[in-house]
């Protein structure tokens, strides 16, 4: 797994939104690499969270990489506002982009953001291959390990087959996993080949978030040494 960096991204969905800036600062002090921002429209998923105005407010307080996961039906509408707001990564869902993914990726890149594609647990992994192999490719694949919409759900180990297939095919791709990740589930994800780890409740709910971040990182780095 040469060339992929262990990246730990606390999911700010589990933070205290009323104190977002200080929660973000705390996570970065604890060793987080990215801040994972879950943008939901109440349509693609049955939950409504934040959008560009909140990213813009947070951007005033931090230079951190803001890893935005768009759980929305019309990702195209979000590119311009999120770029202006200061988003760093823009990951849209393959299920809503069958027709226009090339346009999406080109626009995301043109706005200086890192393009990624996510897939729901029920979506076959083959659907993302063309996006990774395109002339203007996505640079990250987010394998959802729970149904998108809410934090605190149970990790789905059967999703690791998707991660293994991706890692085998694309040794230097950023492969992100999201949902139910924590000290008890990280080893299976890391050994399957995931290198970007999103974790919400296991980090924010821990007596020592710093220790959890460190356990996640060590597991990913350890798995890379073995491969
Ligand atoms: O995208 C999502 C949920 O849709 C995630 O980012 C969750 O927020 C992760 O939370 P935990 O499962 O780690 O609590």
Automatic annotation (TrEMBL):
SUPFAM superfamilies found in the cross-reference section: Ribulose-phoshate binding barrel (SSF51366)
Signal sequence bounds: none
Cofactor: Mn(2+); Co(2+); a divalent metal cation; Fe(2+)
One Pfam family recorded for the sequence: Ribul_P_3_epim
E.C. no: 5.1.3.1
Record's cofactor remark: Binds 1 divalent metal cation per subunit.
CDD domains the UniProt entry points to: RPE
Residues that coordinate or bind substrate: 11, 69, 149-152, 180, 200-201
Active-site residues, record numbering mapped to chain: 38 (proton acceptor), 178 (proton donor)
One GO MF term attached to the UniProt entry: metal ion binding
GO biological process: carbohydrate metabolic process; pentose-phosphate shunt
Positions bound to a divalent metal cation: 36, 38, 69, 178
Catalytic activity annotation: D-ribulose 5-phosphate = D-xylulose 5-phosphate
InterPro entries, per the entry: Aldolase_TIM, Ribul_P_3_epim, Ribul_P_3_epim-like, RibuloseP-bd_barrel
Swiss-Prot/TrEMBL keywords: Carbohydrate metabolism, Cobalt, Isomerase, Manganese, Metal-binding, Zinc
Domain of life: Eukaryota
Family per similarity comment: Belongs to the ribulose-phosphate 3-epimerase family.
Name this polypeptide is given: Ribulose-phosphate 3-epimerase
The species this protein was found in: Rhynchospora pubera
């Amino acid at each position: 797994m040469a060339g992929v960096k262990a990246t730990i991204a606390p999911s700010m969905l589990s933070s205290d939104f009323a104190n977002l800036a200080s929660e973000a600062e705390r996570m970065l002090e604890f060793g987080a690499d990215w801040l994972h921002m879950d943008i939901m429209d109440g349509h693609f998923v049955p939950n409504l969270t934040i959008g560009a105005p909140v990213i813009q407010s947070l951007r005033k307080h931090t230079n951190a990489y803001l890893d935005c996961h768009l759980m929305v039906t019309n990702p195209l509408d979000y590119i311009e506002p999120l770029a202006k707001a200061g988003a760093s990564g823009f990951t849209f869902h393959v299920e809503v982009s069958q027709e226009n993914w090339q346009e999406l990726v080109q626009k995301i890149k043109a706005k200086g953001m890192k393009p990624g594609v996510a897939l729901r647990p029920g979506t076959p992994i083959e659907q993302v291959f063309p996006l990774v192999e395109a002339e203007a490719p996505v640079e990250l694949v987010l394998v959802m390990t729970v149904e998108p919409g809410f934090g605190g759900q149970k990790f789905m180990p059967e999703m690791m087959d998707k991660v293994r297939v991706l890692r085998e095919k694309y040794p230097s791709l950023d492969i992100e996993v999201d949902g139910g990740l924590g000290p008890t589930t990280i080893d299976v994800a890391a050994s399957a080949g995931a290198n970007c780890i999103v974790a919400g409740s296991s980090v924010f709910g821990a007596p020592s978030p710093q220790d959890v971040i460190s356990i996640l990182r060590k597991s990913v780095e350890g798995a890379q040494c073995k491969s």
